[in-house]
Design a protein that fits this description.
alpha+beta, 3 domains, 3-stranded antiparallel beta sheet, 9 helices
């Protein structure tokens, strides 16, 4: 798995997300990593293989998670309160303007079977939220998707995201009620439950060494927390805030750009067919303008037709490339 970076404006951390499972968080932030810096105002199409999920799960399970996210996040309504001299406006809107989920019928020959499998999703971010994921140069949170997916526990993942905002300073402070809401901690949990069930396990997970990209690393070295109380009698006092400290992370994380050697060899081969012509049953007589290979080994071919203009096709295997491009070369 390559080094994919999730990057968004710090304001996203202030959104109280619905209660999401570990795998729902993995998929959601994998999607956010894919849609960042989409400036052409067109929906982005993501297939199953575009969405990194960590552990291998069945198509049926993946479909169930997408359906759950559809209700919890994709269709969730967010509210913005706007106050003027004469009015207070409660404005409700969705994170995505476009959210079209395409399914394939599981049993296409059975007219009575309505079961379906996720195929792809088209997403376009609401203009009100575009600043959260596009053109980020300051006030942003960034982390490696692979490291995020490797974490166990939904509270560990949420705390990881919140602390990454303060990665360069090594100190994060939250008002207690704000922290409870951001972490989605049940309101009926007493302080002992929060310590034993949430904070201590999450701290242990975020201090645990793990091997990523053939290198051992710790998400947050020397991570610890202190609950701050107001003045009270004796040992009492109400918890009003929480502070986390850890070793500052001064090195900027970067998205890997180089292809592995085997993909480089594949790209060197397919690029030989640039600036040639094909005459295929599907695409007719076309000029091969550009050929590239993405990090998953898929071959992307940009075709040009005098009448229809540019068209990009994606081929999953070298065999498919041979059948649709090489075997259709016009000599």
């Amino acid at each position: 798995m390559s080094n994919v970076i999730v990057k968004y404006h710090n304001d996203f951390n202030r959104i109280q997300l619905p209660s999401l499972t570990e795998q729902e968080q993995n998929i959601l932030f994998s999607i956010l990593a894919k849609i960042k810096n989409n400036n052409d105002n067109k929906p982005i199409r993501l297939f199953t293989e575009d969405i990194i999920t960590g552990s291998v799960i069945s198509k049926e399970h993946f479909t169930a998670i997408i359906n759950s996210l559809k209700t919890k996040f994709f269709k969730a309504s967010f509210m913005q309160i706007i106050e003027t001299d004469t009015e207070i406006i409660d404005s409700n809107f969705h994170f995505f303007n476009t959210m079209d989920i395409h399914y394939q019928k599981k049993n296409q020959d059975d007219g009575y079977d309505n079961s379906k499998i996720f195929y792809y999703i088209d997403l376009l971010v609401n203009p009100r939220f575009e600043y959260l994921v596009n053109e980020l140069t300051a006030n942003f949170t960034a982390f490696e998707l692979t490291e995020f997916i490797s974490l166990s526990g939904k509270y560990s993942k949420t705390l990881y995201r919140l602390l990454k905002q303060f990665r360069s300073t090594g100190k994060a402070y939250f008002e207690w009620q704000d922290f409870m809401e951001r972490m989605d901690i049940p309101s009926d949990y007493n302080m002992c439950n929060i310590d034993q069930r949430i904070l201590k396990p999450a701290i242990a997970e975020l201090r645990k060494p793990r091997n990523l990209f053939d290198k051992e690393r710790i998400p947050f070295e020397k991570l610890q927390y202190t609950k701050l109380k107001n003045k009270g009698r004796g040992r009492g006092g109400k918890v009003v805030a929480i502070e986390f400290t850890f070793k500052p992370q001064v090195q900027e994380i970067q998205e890997s750009k180089e292809l592995p050697q085997d993909l480089k060899e594949l790209e060197n081969y397919v690029k030989k067919f640039e600036r040639k012509h094909i005459n295929s049953k599907d695409d007719g007589f076309c000029y091969i303008e550009k050929v590239s290979v993405d990090e998953k080994g898929r071959i992307k071919v940009m075709l040009y037709d005098n009448d229809k203009g540019k068209k990009q096709i994606t081929l999953s295997t070298l065999q498919e490339f041979q059948e649709k491009i090489v075997n259709c070369l016009y000599h």
